[in-house]
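Run log // design_07
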């Protein structure tokens, strides 16, 4: 079984590690590619955590999902996956290395005004339109932690298909739905991020000798790359939660044929059968993100899976209008309508496509900028 690497180690043929980021199910290494095989000096390498990589089925699923991401190709609003390489008998996904942070770090930032929120929404739609054209049916885990901000301030989408890997290996029992879940809003921002290589033309990554590169954060500071509630098998196939929750309660639970995603951002139908959802579930997830950016809070909060499911399914979404600055009051009803359209309980009542949603966002932004 492959082991994890430390700063200064080499991965495979020429990847030299200078930063390590750990998640519940994976590791991401920031590396210098001595061979520059993808035209970049610095890239990111993502792989399964060693304790999970020993499962042949999980390795195969991870590799399959990663190859789907690679086939998306390059787009200004999609994090590029260059290749999947087998290193020490385990698949490793080679990604663009990003330095701009994720959207989770921007929630609550007073400098994020309404036009910025709309521009990010438009860029999200453009990235997802591209992914759909390449054959993507559904991302299933649209949340701030999977929306990256580039050095130029633009947004791009990451982790295509990766959320689906956990779905093959977790089961739940009815009692789990009412089990209390602990929400932790004190976790630090996720440290790994991704941006387009063009951003580094004007803001190049310095060539830092290994000896002088910064060490990973101390063990007392969590260094997670995703906000997930992970599961370890119990005897008889049942599972139990084993790690922490992420920022603002953005925890995830995955379970075969049932739940897949991040609870505060999951569409009502995603709680019923995650395998059958389509892009309209992603539009719902984005609606939660947009609501959160505007209001600085989530539309629904709960302490059990069942309560999350009920609130997404039946509770009314509060208006975002009170949170919109007076300078944009004239456009507030239209913005509120967009958010509520995205968060419609019935998928058929949501925008029918990312293009349709984008055009509404563009119209609102154009009115704001007059």
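design_07 sequence
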């Amino acid at each position: 079984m492959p082991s994890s690497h430390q700063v200064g180690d080499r991965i495979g043929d020429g990847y030299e590690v200078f930063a390590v980021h750990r998640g519940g199910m994976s590791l991401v290494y920031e590396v210098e590619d001595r061979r520059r095989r993808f035209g970049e000096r610095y890239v990111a390498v993502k792989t399964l955590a060693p304790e999970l990589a020993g499962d042949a089925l999980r390795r195969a699923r991870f590799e399959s999902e990663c190859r789907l991401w690679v086939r998306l190709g390059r787009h200004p609003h999609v994090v590029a996956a260059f290749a999947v390489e087998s290193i020490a008998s385990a698949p490793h996904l080679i990604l663009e290395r990003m330095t701009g942070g994720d959207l989770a770090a921007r929630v609550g930032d007073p400098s994020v005004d309404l036009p910025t929120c709309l521009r990010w929404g438009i860029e999200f739609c453009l990235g997802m339109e591209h992914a759909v054209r390449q054959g993507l049916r559904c991302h299933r885990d649209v949340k701030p932690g999977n929306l990256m901000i580039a050095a130029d301030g633009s947004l791009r989408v990451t982790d295509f298909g990766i959320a689906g890997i956990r779905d093959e290996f977790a089961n739940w029992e009815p009692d789990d739905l009412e089990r209390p879940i602990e929400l932790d809003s004190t976790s630090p921002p996720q440290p790994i991020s991704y941006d387009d290589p063009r951003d580094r033309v004007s803001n190049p990554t310095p060539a830092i000798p290994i000896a002088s590169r910064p060490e990973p954060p101390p063990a007392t500071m969590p260094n997670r790359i995703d906000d997930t509630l992970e599961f370890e098998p119990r005897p008889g196939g049942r599972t139990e939660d084993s790690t922490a929750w992420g920022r603002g309660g953005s925890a995830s639970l995955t379970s075969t044929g049932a739940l897949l995603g991040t609870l505060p951002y999951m569409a009502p139908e995603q709680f019923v059968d995650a395998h059958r959802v389509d892009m309209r579930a992603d539009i719902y997830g984005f609606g939660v993100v947009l609501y959160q950016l505007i209001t600085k809070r989530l539309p629904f909060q709960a302490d059990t899976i069942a309560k999350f499911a009920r609130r997404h399914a039946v509770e009314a979404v509060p208006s975002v209008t009170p949170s919109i600055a007076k300078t944009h009051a004239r456009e507030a009803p239209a913005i509120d309508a967009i958010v509520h359209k995205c968060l419609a309980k019935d998928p058929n009542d949501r925008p029918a496509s990312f293009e349709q949603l984008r055009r509404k966002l563009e119209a609102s932004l154009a009115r704001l900028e007059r």
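Confidence is low (pLDDT under 50) at residues 165-172, 182-258.
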